[in-house]
Specification:
The protein is an alpha/beta fold. It has helices spanning about 5-15, 70-75, 80-90, 105-115, 130-140, 150-160, 180-190, 215, 245-255, 255-260, 265-280, 280-305, 325-335, 365-380, and strands at about 35, 40-45, 95-100, 120-125, 140-145, 165-170, 195-200, 225-230, 240, 315-320, 340, 345, 355-360. β4, α5 and β5 form a beta-alpha-beta unit. The longest helix is centred in the last third of the chain and has 23 residues, at about 280-305. The termini are far apart.
Length: about 375
């Protein structure tokens, strides 16, 4: 049997389970309204929370060319990278920052570099796949604690010795929209001598003073702080902020940083421009608009008994369906009405928790939210 025959059978099995994925073509800039497969639709599936992906301030070029030419440790450490890292450290009030090509690479690199076979990583059950894979790659013992359950975390910390112990958590969970109890987790780390690693991918730009994230909002200082540039900041890449010692160590030991070509300098310049917008007066206005849209959709979903527990304070609203085929049917029905809300199925979410993931942007209008709610009335509830 040929390899294509084997893979074809596996794809057919995914089809039968309602789990096969396809790539849709976006023919326009990312925004509240997009061209999707040749149709104009309202976009409720993007992580472009502040609407910055097509902001004029981000349309910059670099006098250092297009490609970086090498890894950062060879000859690819360009001025644009260093300027962005300095701006990121200043934004978060830390000594240093280190730029990674993606959030996935950042989480893999951080956890692989910091933890090893004699260590223990305590990871929230609903953490992002990149955290899960970083835990596996580290070779450390992994203790998965119940989602946002500090009591369970403390029980595991009390009974699981290790050379070094780390607690890693998303601060805003990407598929549920709820926030980690970060103050309580920090207190547990202090009590049991563990180091706190946070992933602020879905919080940066959106939550906290100047969009600095949940940690800043709660005045919690993590030991390692990771965030992305490709969501609310509208560009591409990720970064870690912390002490100069941490950043120097990661530059020497994080394999996903060492063994990859540096990000294009133009993207680094665009990310720096996005940071300036998000952290300034315009960013405050965009967050105000986003909070208004969040409140509108929260009320609408609550009125329809569709608001999931824990959702409603961030731009992410899951509508739990459970059955994969029903979720795909709901996505197709909404799309027929000009609304794009992607069905999220296992393995992205745990079995039995298939949902529509609704994400809101500052650039959505009240009319856009009303159209979504009307479509849900017609096609989802009915």
């Amino acid at each position: 049997m040929s390899l294509d025959d084997i893979l074809g059978r596996e794809l057919a099995a995914l089809d039968a389970q309602g789990l096969r994925r396809t790539l849709r073509l976006v023919g326009s800039p990312q925004g509240a309204v997009i061209d999707l497969d040749g149709r104009s639709v309202l976009n409720f599936s993007s992580n472009n929370y502040l609407g910055l992906a097509h902001h004029p301030a981000l349309r910059v070029t670099s006098d250092q060319g297009v490609g970086a030419g090498a890894s950062r440790l060879i000859v690819g450490n360009l001025r644009a990278h260093r300027d962005l890292e300095n701006a990121l450290a200043a934004f978060h009030g830390t000594d240093s920052a280190l730029l990674f090509s993606t959030g996935y690479q950042a989480n893999l690199g951080v956890l692989q570099a910091l933890a090893g076979p004699d260590d223990v990583i305590h990871s929230d059950r609903l953490n992002h796949a990149s955290i899960i894979d970083g835990c596996r790659l580290s070779g450390a013992r992994v203790e998965v604690y119940a989602h946002a359950d500090v009591d369970d975390l403390e029980r595991r910390l009390a009974t699981t010795p290790g050379r070094r112990r780390f607690v890693v958590t998303d601060t805003v969970f990407s598929m549920d929209g709820d926030r980690a109890p970060l103050r309580e987790i920090r207190a547990a780390c202090d009590r049991f001598d563990a180091y706190l690693v946070v992933d602020e991918a879905h919080a940066t730009g959106v939550v906290g003073p100047g969009g600095r994230g949940v940690a800043a909002d709660l005045d919690v200082r993590p030991d390692v702080h990771m965030a992305t540039l490709g969501k609310a900041l509208g560009t591409f890449g990720a970064y870690v902020t912390g002490s100069g010692t941490l950043v120097d160590f990661l530059a020497n030991r994080a394999r996903s940083f060492i063994f990859t070509t540096a990000p294009p300098p133009g993207l680094a310049r665009a990310a720096r421009a996005a940071l300036a917008v998000a952290g300034g007066d315009e960013g405050d206005r965009l967050r105000d608009a986003l909070r208004s849209r969040i409140a509108e959709i929260r009320r609408g979903l609550a009125d329809r008994a569709l608001l999931a527990p824990g959702a409603g304070t961030t731009p992410i609203f899951p509508i739990l369906v459970g059955d994969e085929r029903r979720a795909l049917t709901a996505t197709r029905a909404l799309l027929a009405r000009g609304i794009y809300a992607q069905a999220i199925r296992p393995p992205t979410v745990p079995p039995g928790t298939t949902r529509l993931r609704i994400s809101v942007m500052a650039t959505h209008s009240p009319e856009h939210i009303a159209a979504l709610l009307a479509a849900l009335d017609h096609d989802f509830r009915g």
